[in-house]
Amino acid sequence: MTLKNRLFVLLLGLPLLLLAGLAGIALHLESEHYRQVLHERITTAVDLLAPELSSALSTGDRPALEALAGRLLDLEEIRAVGIRDATGTPRLELGRLREASLPTGEGGVRLDTDGRLWRLQAPLSAGAADHPAPAWLELDIDAMPLVLNHYRRLASAGLGLLVTGLLLWLIAYTTSRRLIAPVQAADQALARLASGDNPPPLTFSSPPELAGLAARVNALSAHLDHARDEVQRQIEQTTAELQESMETIEVQNIELDMAHRRALEANRIKSEFLANMSHEIRTPLNGIIGFCRLLGRSRLEPRQREWLDHVHRACDNLLMLVNDVLDFSKIEAGRLELEHVPLDMVTLVDEVLALQAPQAHLKDLQLLGLVYDDVPVALTGDPLRIRQVLTNLVNNAIKFTERGEITVRVMVEQAETGRVTLRVSVSDTGIGLSPENCQRLFQAFRQADPSHSREFGGTGLGLTICRQLVEQMGGEIGVESAPGKGSTFAFTLPLEGDEERERPPELQLAGETVLLDEPHPATRRALHHLLTRWGARVVDAGQRPAPASSPALLVAGIPDQALDATGIATWQRRLDAITCPALLLVNTSPLDLPLLAPPQGGEVLSKPLSRVALVEAVQRQLGGQQPATLPTPEDESEAGPLRLLVVDDTESNRLLLRELIRRPGLEVDLAASGEEALAMAQERHYALVLMDIRMPGMDGIETTRALRRLQGAWSHRPIIAVTAHVLEDERQRLLASGLDDVLIKPLDTHGLTELLQHHLDLPTLPPLETGDMPVERAEEDGELAVVDLTLGTRLAGGREPLARELLARLADSLPESKTAIREALEREDDEALLDAIHALNGACRYCGAPRLALIAETLETRLRSRGREGVTPLLDDLFAAMAGLRDWQTAQPSSTTKATASSASSVNDR
């Protein structure tokens, strides 16, 4: 409330309220006084006349009664007079009385003052003998004059209050103006002081209090003015000091920025150094591995072959270390880019377990992949990096586990619209970790125990790379472990996908009874769930099925203890006794599967078993329904031999691959380009494709993606990359692009046979027909020969005519290759130069030209790691080796020219 309103309340409101209260009290008291006076007048008059009325009533003197009643009626306030006996019969009535009942019993004068008309009733004694009972005198009294008199007094009081209020308002208004104006002036002066202005001095003479206020406001204004000047002076001084400090800080910032840039540059140089050194180390490593392969194809004593195996293993370990360092340097330098391509977690987990299976088989460890049903089929992410993380975790689990199992689980942790967060865990039953070791496990170059690097190998970079990759993909990684109780490494994986599209069942078995006998509990539960989800009625081996529902299929796991001769014989007798096909699961490599022959049909499969392989195996035995697709390789194998497709732009490579593969039961078609292979795939069905990567037009990756888009059987048809030069990161990139495996030129016949057996699910392949190995090789002078027919015949699968034909084709293509290399160098076209050298390297991989093959391999490695400047010193050696092979062809068939020593620099480069 403002001061003005308060003054009005004090000077106007309170006095008026007080006067109104006093007036009200006075009016009430006066009204009561007049009522009392009237009451007394009437009562006195009645008391005076009552005896005479009683006497006249007792004598029956009516005239006297009327005279006496008339005297009462003469009173101004009385309107009517009446006398009634005890029965209510009127004896006398002057005026018009209101109807009213007589009082009961005896009593005195009674006066009813309610309302405008009062009623007075007084008893009269009737002494006559005929009227012994008393009579009653009744008067109607008009109280309206009292009310009118009260209203007149009330109006007079209101008029007086109104006049008084006007006078008080004038007094309050005048007082407020005299008090409020100086206060408002002081307020405006203070507001101007607050805003930084200098108001004029205030001059108040009266009252004294306001004069004192004006003096204090003026003093405050002078003080603030002085303080403002002082602050301005201090500000100017502080600004000068701050300017000097800012100049000093700016100099320090420049120095810090220069130091920061130097640190960033040093970090960049370190990362580039690591990357370049990794490439530089891999260049001689590839040469060493190439020499090891060349030596491995020659005649060696057992002790020499053992030494060679040690060298090869050491090179593989060193190559793995270099790859880890390269990945670590890429991540630190921020040059690692993530892909966003479709992926399938079931296929990805199965591929990782299949690659790690040989190591697990050596320790008799069980590998199991569990992808829960709510994990969508269609997801988008970076399968290469996910596979890298999973591979590292599974490899570590195998490394630190001596017995038991390794389980990979994939489940949905959180689902949103268009985004699914998976939780991927890898559990083992290994040595476990202490809480202290768990805390430092994900640091670079740190292992749980310093002795682990000596006992198990490794650099301590793998988990650091995993952590950085998972974090870059938007997830988190952690570990739960206890010493002696195994470990569980888990990471979250945010991916793009539809959470409502769950994985549909791969088969419809329509209630078929399947007898399940799997000794490993986790595998048994997984198989039971899958078969039940596919619609089968699963009966455990401990239960006996009803006679009317004999099993349609036996799925049995053979324990490791039953793989000796006695165990195999026991299982064969058991198979002879069953009346249904059997799928036998053995935890060993495909080459070591036991020779068991179920009499009712069946297969022996290697663990870990991928879901696709299990689906196809069950479908072959039970014929479960699947969506309509193109005919499968299995269907074609029943009607005729399996047909394979070789895609390569080099004719000699196509011919050699056909000769290495072709045998009874296998036929090979050839395609010279990706476009031709795509056209052939739309017309015929192939069980497997061997795909060259670098080809003109559609390269191998584009062709593979086009084949996958054909849907049907091509969505899971094995497509194998065949290339002459691939590093580990490039291998992972090829696998993530839809290829199922990678073969390195020159092809090893044994390795090619294993690959065909694995991807075609064939227990054995007919052997290749080979002839005697010719002896035409380098002299024992420590140098590589221009031509080594022994090596060429071995690369050609033991066919000497084919080896000579491939050498001739290679020699005929050398002028064209030389021209392509020179033109690329003149145009400074690195891509064309890489294509030309890659084609030459691929052609040399299948021929017995070791010197040219080694130089081409070294050139391609240097070109990929160093660029065009890195290959210039070796071009003379390349052209010399090409000329040497041409000279050898010219001298045929009379002689074979041997190569001599190359220059010292060329030897050092090799």
What can you tell me about this protein's structure?
This protein is an alpha/beta fold and 910 residues long. It is built from 25 helices and 22 strands. Helix 7 crosses helix 18 and helix 22 (830-845) runs antiparallel to helix 23. It is elongated, with a radius of gyration of 58 Å. The chain starts with a helix and ends with a helix. The relative contact order is 0.05. The model is unreliable at 451-457, 625-639, 769-782 and 894-910 (pLDDT under 50).
Oligomer: single chain
Per DSSP E runs of 2 or more residues, the count of β-strands stands at: 22
Overall helicity = 40-55%
Q: Give a quick account of the main beta sheet: strands, pairing sense, barrel closure.
A: 7 strands, mixed
Structural class: alpha/beta
Q: Which whole number gives the mean pLDDT?
A: 79
Determine Rg (CA atoms, Å): 58 Å
Strand content: 5-15%
Number of helices: 25
Distance between the termini: 101 Å
Q: Indicate the low-confidence ranges by residue numbers.
A: 451-457, 625-639, 769-782, 894-910
| Cα shape | elongated
Topology:
Blueprint: H1 3-59, H2 62-73, E1 78-84, E2 90-94, E3 110-112, E4 117-124, E5 135-142, H3 144-194, H4 208-296, H5 302-333, E6 341-343, H6 345-362, E7 366-371, E8 379-381, H7 383-399, E9 405-416, E10 419-428, H8 435-439, H9 452-455, H10 462-472, E11 477-481, E12 487-497, E13 513-517, H11 521-533, E14 537-540, E15 553-558, H12 565-577, E16 582-586, E17 602-606, H13 611-622, H14 633-639, E18 642-647, H15 651-661, E19 666-671, H16 674-683, E20 688-692, H17 700-708, E21 719-723, H18 728-736, E22 741-744, H19 749-760, H20 789-795, H21 800-827, H22 830-845, H23 850-866, H24 875-891, H25 904-909
Parallel strand pairs: 7-9, 13-14, 13-15, 15-16, 16-17, 18-19, 18-20, 20-21, 21-22
Antiparallel strand pairs: 1-2, 1-5, 3-4, 4-5, 6-8, 8-12, 9-10, 10-12, 11-12
